[in-house]
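Table S2 (continued). Query chain:
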Amino acid sequence: MTDRNFTSRFSVDQSPDTVVAAINNVRGWWSEGIVGNAARVGDRFTHAVLDLHRCDLAVTEMIPGKKIAWVVLDNYFSFTRDATEWTGTSMVFEIARIGDQTEVRFTHVGLVPDYECYDICHDGWTTYIRSLRDLITTGKGNPNIGEAKTESEVALVQASEGALTTG
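Corresponding output:
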């Protein structure tokens, strides 16, 4: 059976410790508006994109230089019939030194193509994992700064604005 969870991987020249520090810096690659902390097991934080998406997460696992895992405690999407699609899913970062590079494998366990949000979330994670890679390799990520960032987010905002003007 094929693993259907959203997964992305990349390799960098930096050390596993540098990668872990970047992942834990969620404001540096995912969203500057994150509230809370993501640096140790038990930490909780909230990510939100306008009125489109909000999720509350907890850090559930940290193996130094090897693995970080978060679980979604609560989720809200304004654009899906089931606004809680992410609730109970997990984000897992697996880190491994392979030769002279560090491989990062990100899996959103439970985010599968059957989900209504999948295409939009695929677009979002692809954008933000690229931002994480940039943070690791250049010291500067490209996080969300409180406005629609990905093509999908922009389209959702435009659709909701259109509904307001025609409704």
